[in-house]
């Protein structure tokens, strides 16, 4: 940095930066920085799970700041590189002070720490660096950078870009300036386009204004409902209020959807609350450690809990694991710690201890719930889960019940039937599911034999031609043949399917299954056979 300067100038710069380093690394100052950093980061990850980087002026300061941090949070420390929440990433030599040695290591150690820092699920949350990882290091889950080192120009822009990678609901990276780089950042931005300048360096006051604006939007959706006990009531009151809020939002969104004629517009109407809270959560994440954000934290948490519960109630089969993890984290972060025993069912309006959808008592209670929209969502979720749980045991039956459920919900969304009517249809569907489970006992067939029987009887004319007894015999023979070929190599799926097709056709022809119906029957039986075999080798 100073090699092109005259010797006297180099000495002057060394003395200058040595003085600055001593001031920046003063014990009392680092203690204050550590206290603020720990409090800020804990508030930050409450709003948005993720990781952070601390940039220090020297290796000595890196080590001293680390010691201050673990003095505040001893549980964050670990001598094992694979464990612990905070690590220093730096190079060194054997001649360095002994207290530095635990933080230095080979390239293999740095590669390991880089891998852990990039893994959103790993407990390593905070990395302290001087120069390492300020360029070329990408960890999308890293959303905050604490800068305590003078930087400028292109190097500064490269450094802050470490926390600006896109990930799920992450709105942007956050820079916490402990040393005064704001003016240098403005100067560096002059080299970039106007749009880049507008997107970088958003002041906290702007983020707070955005938070309050989005908070007003969400609050307006509850106009007419007192949800205050959802934030400051007893655990039981909070659960009751949560149930009321869910029912309120579902009813409002259904009313909005019914006013729409376009299919896509209906979908948007059913997601307005969820989308509004997503925007609120992003705004909150940007300024979560501010005084303004702390004042509204409970309200934001309640709105996020309602949103998470709506997602949980919905069919999550098409959602990614990351989305499900996010919903679960939102519920966990907003959970109420209490020693009081809470009856969740009674809070939702149900008193039956048997919550199985196969219970007549439970179905009767669902039908009599005052919160009809909440009852509908709960029953839809239960039915989806029950149908999905049977998907491998009976492909044909699963398809039929899924179609019935989708058709009922579609009719409801197009205003063909009311909330009460669709609720009665779903209760009838639940009872049919229960009866389907008991079929094997009545027909003296195993679960897998029932599945093959359904595949053969999917076309009613097959029953008329062969009769039930003959179809049961074929189902038994198919299962027997399947077990005999259970060692089929599914690593070669096409050849495995061909072997099964030959087996199925031979058995169908042996028992005189109608040739004109054979194609559909073979497809159904093959689908069921593959499901059973795939499940068996899991």
* Straight-line N-to-C gap: 60 Å
Q: What topology, given as strand order, has the largest sheet?
A: 2-3-1-4-5
Number of strands: 5
Shape: elongated
Order of helices and strands: HHEHEHEEHEHHHHHHHHHHHHHHHHHHHH
Main pleated sheet: 5 strands, parallel
The structural class is: mainly alpha
* Average residue-wise pLDDT: 76
Number of distinct helices: 25
Low-confidence stretches: 1-5, 195-199, 315-347
Descriptive overview:
- By secondary structure, the chain is mainly α.
- The protein has helices at residues 7-24, 27-47, 59-72, 107-118, 153-160, 182-189, 194-199, 204-220, 229-232, 235-258, 263-269, 272-286, 291-295, 297-313, 321-333, 344-347, 360-368, 372-389, 395-413, 419-443, 447-456, 460-466, 468-484, 493-510, 515-536; strands at 51-56, 86-89, 126-129, 142-148, 174-177.
- The protein has a five-stranded parallel beta sheet, sandwiched between helices.
- Strand 4, helix 5 (153-160) and strand 5 form a beta-alpha-beta unit.
- The protein is elongated and about 105 Å long.
- It starts with 6 loop residues before the first helix and ends with a helix.
Which features characterize this protein?
538 residues, five-stranded parallel beta sheet, 25 helices, mainly alpha
Concise account of the structure shown:
The protein has 538 residues and is mainly alpha-helical. It has 25 helices and five strands. The protein has a five-stranded parallel beta sheet, sandwiched between helices.
């Amino acid at each position: 940095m100073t090699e092109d300067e005259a010797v006297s100038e180099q000495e002057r710069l060394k003395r200058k930066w040595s003085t600055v380093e001593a001031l920046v690394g003063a014990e009392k100052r680092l203690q204050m920085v550590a206290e603020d950093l720990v409090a800020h980061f804990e508030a930050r990850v409450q709003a948005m799970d993720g990781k952070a980087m601390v940039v220090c002026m020297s290796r000595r300061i890196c080590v001293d700041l680390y010691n201050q941090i673990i003095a505040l949070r001893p549980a964050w420390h670990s001598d094992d590189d694979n464990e612990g929440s905070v690590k220093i990433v730096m190079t060194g030599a054997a001649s360095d002070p002994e207290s530095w040695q635990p933080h230095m290591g080979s390239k293999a150690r740095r590669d390991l720490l880089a891998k852990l820092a990039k893994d959103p699920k790993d407990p390593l949350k905070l990395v302290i660096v001087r120069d390492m990882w300020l360029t070329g290091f990408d960890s999308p889950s890293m959303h905050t950078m604490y800068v305590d080192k003078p930087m400028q120009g292109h190097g500064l822009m490269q450094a802050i870009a470490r926390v600006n990678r896109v990930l799920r609901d992450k709105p942007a990276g956050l820079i916490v300036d402990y040393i005064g780089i704001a003016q240098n950042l403005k100067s560096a931005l002059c080299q970039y386009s106007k749009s880049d300048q507008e997107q970088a360096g958003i002041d906290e006051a702007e983020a707070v204004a955005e938070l309050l604006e989005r908070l007003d939007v969400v609050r307006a959706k509850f106009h007419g409902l007192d949800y205050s006990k959802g934030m400051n009531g007893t655990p039981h009151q909070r659960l009751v209020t949560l149930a009321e809020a869910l029912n309120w939002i579902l009813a409002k969104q259904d009313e909005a959807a019914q006013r729409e004629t376009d299919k896509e517009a209906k979908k948007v109407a059913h997601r307005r609350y969820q989308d509004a809270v997503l925007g609120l959560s992003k705004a909150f994440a940007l300024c979560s450690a501010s005084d303004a954000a702390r004042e509204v934290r409970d309200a934001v948490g309640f709105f996020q809990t309602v949103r998470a519960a709506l997602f949980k109630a919905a069919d999550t089969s098409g959602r990614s694991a990351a989305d499900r993890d996010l919903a679960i984290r939102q519920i966990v972060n907003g959970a109420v710690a209490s020693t009081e025993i809470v009856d969740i069912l009674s809070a939702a309006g149900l008193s039956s201890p048997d919550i199985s959808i196969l219970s007549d008592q439970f179905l009767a209670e669902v039908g009599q719930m005052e919160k009809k929209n909440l009852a509908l969502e709960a029953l839809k979720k239960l039915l989806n889960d029950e149908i999905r749980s049977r998907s491998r045991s009976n492909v044909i039956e699963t398809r039929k019940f899924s179609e019935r459920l989708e058709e009922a919900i579609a009719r409801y969304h197009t205003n063909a039937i009311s909330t009460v009517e669709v609720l009665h249809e779903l209760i009838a569907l639940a009872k049919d599911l229960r009866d389907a489970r008991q079929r094997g006992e009545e027909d003296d067939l195993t679960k897998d034999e029932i599945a093959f029987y359904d595949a053969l009887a999917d076309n009613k004319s097959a029953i008329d031609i062969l009769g039930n007894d003959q179809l049961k015999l074929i189902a038994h023979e198919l299962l027997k043949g399947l077990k005999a070929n259970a060692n089929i190599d599914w690593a070669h799926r096409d050849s495995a399917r061909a072997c099964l097709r030959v087996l199925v056709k031979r058995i169908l022809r042996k028992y005189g299954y109608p040739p004109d119906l054979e194609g559909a029957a073979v497809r159904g039986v093959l689908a069921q056979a593959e499901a059973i075999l795939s499940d068996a080798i899991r």
